[in-house]
Amino acid sequence: MYVTVLIPLPILHSDGPTDTVELLRAMNQLVHERGSGHFSLLTKGHAPSLARTHREVLEIIPGLGPALARSLLSRFGSLQGVIAAGHDELMAVAGIGTARAGQVPEILRSEYRAAKR
Predict the structure, then answer these.
(1) How far is residue 84's CA from residue 27's CA, in Å, rounded to a whole number?
(2) pLDDT tens digit string along 42-62?
(3) Which pLDDT score, from 0 to 100, does residue 2 have?
(4) What is the DSSP string of the chain?
């Protein structure tokens, strides 16, 4: 099994090194049980709730976990509200400091540029 990291975005949450090892071990086992060599983190079956999807979009931003994602969505009401929020508005949310208040809009508002292969 290969795990490739192109950019340092946390895609899986773990509670520390031991939890990370267990998560990778479980992923490896799934890949070998299925025999395809491919493993997707996307859930199959019914779609998650809209609220969960909104939280997960924010949780992929480095430094934003479930609690901060919920706080941002509660404060601004939607992903669009978070995207439109200014630096000072973001700083008013507990847990958001200067660095995160700059990082969130940078990630959410920047133009997509495909990685060169």
Answers:
(1) 37
(2) 555 566 788 988 998 898 888
(3) 44
(4) -----SS----S--SSHHHHHHHHHHHHHHHHHH-SS----S--SSPPPHHHHHHHHHHTSTT--HHHHHHHHHHHSSHHHHHH--HHHHHTSTT--HHHHHHHHHHHHSPP-PPP-
Per residue in 56-96, pLDDT tens?
Answer: 889 888 888 889 999 999 999 999 999 999 999 999 999 99
Q: Report the candidate in 77, 109, 74, 79 with the shortest Cα–Cα distance to residue 93.
A: 74
Tokens found for residue 84? 């439109």
**pTM for the complete prediction?**
0.60
2, with CB counted inside 10 A (0-12, 13-18, 19+), is: exposed
Amino acid type, 64: L
89 contact partners, CB below 8 Å, separation of at least 6: 76
- Taking the C-alpha atoms of residue 25 and residue 28, their distance in angstroms, rounded to an integer, is 5
